[in-house]
Amino acid sequence: MYTIKNYMEEAVGNMIDKVLENIDVCKCPKCKLDIMALALNRLPPRYFVTKEGELFERLSELQEQFTVDITAAIAAAAFIVKSNPKHD
């Protein structure tokens, strides 16, 4: 059975720890998920269904601008969460 996936979720998830290690922000699971959600809202989705589609999206990861865009979105989201933490 086929499923639809947003490759951008995986890409942000793979980069978030690296980006956040240089930012003074809470890194608890709730804050990290808030940062990911905000970052994903700033980035265009990259949906795929087939393995070929997934490979195409992984190739775009090699583009420098792709990495810069994700880093900028995570950093911007981190500063929002730092200013407005939503801890229980």
Automatic annotation (TrEMBL):
It comes from Caldicellulosiruptor diazotrophicus. Pfam families: ComFB. This is Late competence development protein ComFB. InterPro entries: ComFB.
